[in-house]
Specification:
Helix content is 31%, strand content 16%. It has 2 domains: 99 residues, NAD(P)-binding Rossmann-like Domain (Rossmann fold), CATH 3.40.50.720; 150 residues, Rossmann fold, CATH 3.40.50. The chain has 258 residues and is α/β, with parallel strands linked by helices.
């Protein structure tokens, strides 16, 4: 009888108490399949070669993959990352070890877009300040008019990037009647027209946006894309929301200064 297909999930799929950390992530089909052996790796920041020994497929969340993550037995054939972006994965090492690599863009498209909407509402309506005032009772609530929210109708909602997440963001924020503006040198102009999104160059989007969102992948060309000089172009009243990668924001490089 042939051995079962060995599938491992990275350790961060489990909470410290052993409960599944992502209730909406459905692995029931894998659990039911008698030809699949499913288990969890020890939680770590980077997957090691010892962990991939005898593994046929790896379902990955947060840990990184390096050239040292592949065991010499060559059993690992597939890495499926729960999320988008390859910045934590050595893609060349995957290729060199004949390991297929896939991501799940549809799995995070709506949740991240909803997260952006949540940030927009919390920040523009000053919920955090009002929550603190509420905890002070009558004394705090008497100051609530000092923290009035910002009306969103007609405000410019800008996006650096017009991929899956940004498109979903513009769809779900449409009822708020903000004016959509985006920068993306790779997007099909027809997609922007269909969504009613005005396209502009990067500096124009930064200058005009009342709410500027970052929705691009982290690549060599986008690392520190929003440096000190570009951030200084923003309106003094503008709000910056980055749900992409932290390293897209960064200090000026020597090239920038020159």
């Amino acid at each position: 009888m042939p051995s079962r297909f060995n599938v491992a999930l990275s350790g961060d799929f489990l909470n410290p108490d052993g409960e599944f950390a992502f209730p909406g992530f459905d692995i029931e089909a894998l659990q039911r399949n008698t030809k699949i052996q499913l288990h969890y790796l020890e939680n770590c920041s980077e997957i090691t070669a010892d962990q991939t020994k005898g593994i046929d497929a790896l379902i990955l969340s947060g840990p990184g993959i390096t050239a040292d993550s592949f065991h010499v037995d060559g059993s690992l054939a597939l890495i499926a990352r729960f999320g988008v972006g390859y910045d934590s994965i050595d893609v060349e090492a995957c290729t060199a070890n004949n390991v297929a690599l896939v991501i799940t863009p549809e799995g995070v498209r709506r949740p991240v877009a909803v997260s952006i909407l949540t940030h927009i509402l919390v920040l523009t309506q000053r919920f955090l300040q009002k929550e603190r005032l509420c905890r002070q009772g009558a004394k705090g609530w008497s100051q609530v008019t000092d923290f009035n929210g910002i009306g969103l109708v007609g405000k410019i909602l800008g996006s650096i990037g017009l991929g899956n997440i940004a498109r979903e963001m513009f769809r779900i924020t449409a009822p708020l009647e903000m004016r959509p503006l985006a920068y993306d040198p790779y997007v099909d102009p027809g997609v922007a027209r269909e969504l009613g999104v005005e396209m502009a160059d990067l500096e124009t989007v930064i200058r005009r946006s009342d709410i500027l969102t970052v929705n691009c992948p982290l690549t060599p060309s986008t690392r520190h894309l929003l440096n000190k000089g570009r951030l200084s172009l923003m309106k003094p009243t503008a709000i910056l929301i980055n749900t992409a990668r932290g390293a897209i924001l960064g200090q000026n490089s020597r090239k920038d200064r020159e």
